[in-house]
User: Which sequence fits this backbone?
């Protein structure tokens, strides 16, 4: 099931307590869903007027970013053509894995070693990735040669973290917790600090310089692609792209400009590629099909024509098979000045014969007229070796150009789908933050939770959530059962008129990018 619910509830004494209460009731006791914490960093709240105005704008931005992500995914499926069944496994989102632990250290270092060894066998700028069925596709991975030090990135990063851990163990003898200060030149993704109960309850950010251990700042954690469910269930705020020191409005503008540029580039690239593909398809159609419409250049030879004659010319005639005998017995009588016995059968398909016939140039138009009356079709064709060679070269050139554009275009679509999808989830996080502040007030104290409902338990889950949080707003449950408010209450800034309203903040995510329609 590709549907997820993103909700937030006001914090209890701690956010962990809020999550545990909800998780115990819905997951452990009733098994109607799987729950994940959804960490949102400490964002700048701003004024009430700013939040109200931003709430409506974020709703529009949410729809636009989702639509763009789906457009990119749809076009990737079109570009893959006969390999469209591989679309789902190519829709990935970049995921920052956060600090490694002892159990994964050896495994990940082994992966980096494999990457280093594989560089000897890959072609420049051409990667391959083995899918779940064991087959390989040229378009399916980034070449490890894109970064000269790909394996060193893993080694340097893990060395930093484990040196930090050793330094932390030494320091813990005198202090239970290290005093951490912000790093001055960090450029990598950081683990977010949950805003649910303030910064003291969130996970510490790794982009710091440790006092007293001499380790310094960490190298960037290498990004690894993740499937879409893994990305949202392990969501981390991208501090590098969307700095939390910026206002909420500025972060929304950053996302809007980023996705707007991707949308504009998609239109440009898709138009160019579609034109190329269309031209190639038109030429390929002319190489096949009925003799009435197909290109005859690859069917005829020089000896089929009278060339360089001042008076004579050769025509190509399409004859229905049912009228084959009529042509053989009567073509010389269609008009005057036809060279006797000049017609020969060149080729045939299921419905037609292709004949040539030689006659004087002065009677060509008369011949065409009378031939049409007898249901014989004269094809307009002039034998010119240079033009025929140019036509064949054009097809070869288009095929080559399409192959050259295919790989880079697929890589661009995969990268920018990831960008759009990640931006979309960040917009959802912004909406949860804004709506939670508007609903629950200040100081900021809420727990965001990502819920994956069981397919046939959504109504039961809704009842349990109303049981937990119905007291927050009685009007949301007064109409009965587990549904939202039957009356569409449009409160400016809160967007209640645009969707079902519940006593808790609620947004639905459908991450099925293959079949779902916007």
Assistant:
């Amino acid at each position: 099931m590709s549907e997820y619910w993103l909700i937030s509830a006001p914090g209890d004494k701690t956010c962990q307590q809020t999550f545990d209460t909800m998780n115990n009731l819905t997951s452990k006791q009733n098994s109607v869903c799987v729950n994940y914490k959804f960490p949102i960093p400490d964002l700048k709240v701003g004024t009430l007027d700013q939040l109200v105005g931003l709430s409506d704008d974020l709703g529009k931005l949410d729809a636009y970013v989702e639509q763009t992500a789906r457009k990119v995914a749809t076009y990737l499926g079109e570009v893959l053509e006969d390999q469209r069944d591989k679309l789902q496994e190519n829709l990935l989102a970049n995921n920052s894995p956060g600090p490694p632990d002892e159990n994964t250290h050896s495994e990940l270092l082994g992966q980096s070693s494999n990457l280093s060894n594989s560089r000897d066998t890959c072609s420049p700028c051409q990667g391959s990735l083995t899918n779940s069925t064991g087959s390989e596709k040229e378009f399916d991975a980034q070449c490890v040669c894109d970064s000269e030090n790909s394996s060193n990135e893993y080694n340097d990063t893990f060395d930093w973290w484990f040196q930090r851990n050793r330094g932390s163990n030494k320091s813990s003898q005198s202090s239970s917790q290290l005093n951490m200060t912000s790093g001055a030149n960090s450029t990598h993704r950081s683990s977010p600090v949950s805003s649910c109960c303030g910064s003291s309850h969130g996970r510490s950010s790794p982009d710091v310089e440790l006092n007293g251990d001499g380790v310094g700042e960490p190298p960037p954690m290498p990004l690894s692609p993740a499937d879409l469910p893994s990305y949202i269930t392990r969501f981390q705020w991208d501090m590098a792209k969307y700095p939390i020191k910026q206002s909420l409005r500025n972060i929304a503008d950053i996302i809007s400009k980023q996705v707007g540029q991707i949308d504009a580039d998609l239109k440009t690239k898709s138009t160019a590629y579609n034109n190329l593909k269309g031209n190639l398809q038109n030429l390929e159609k002319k190489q096949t099909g009925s003799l009435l419409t197909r290109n005859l250049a690859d069917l005829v030879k020089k000896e089929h024509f009278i060339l360089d004659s001042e008076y004579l010319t050769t025509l190509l005639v399409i004859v229905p098979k049912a009228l084959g005998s009529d042509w053989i017995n009567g073509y010389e009588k269609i008009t005057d000045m036809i060279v006797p016995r000049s017609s020969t059968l060149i080729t045939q398909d299921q419905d037609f014969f292709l004949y040539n016939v030689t006659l004087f140039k002065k009677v060509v138009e008369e011949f065409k007229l009378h031939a049409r009356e007898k249901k014989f079709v004269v094809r307009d064709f002039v034998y010119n070796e240079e033009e025929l060679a140019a036509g064949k070269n054009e097809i070869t050139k288009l095929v080559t150009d399409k192959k050259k554009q295919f790989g880079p275009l697929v890589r661009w679509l995969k990268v920018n789908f990831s960008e759009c999808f990640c931006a979309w989830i960040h917009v959802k996080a912004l909406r949860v933050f804004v709506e939670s502040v508007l609903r629950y007030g200040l100081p900021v104290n809420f727990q965001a939770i990502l819920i994956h409902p069981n397919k046939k338990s959504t109504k039961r889950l809704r009842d349990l959530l109303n049981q937990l949080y119905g007291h927050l707003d009685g009007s949301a449950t007064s109409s009965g059962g587990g549904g939202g408010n039957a009356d569409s209450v449009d409160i400016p800034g809160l967007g209640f008129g645009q969707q079902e309203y519940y006593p808790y903040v609620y947004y639905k995510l459908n991450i099925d990018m293959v079949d779902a329609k916007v």
Summary: The radius of gyration is 34 Å.
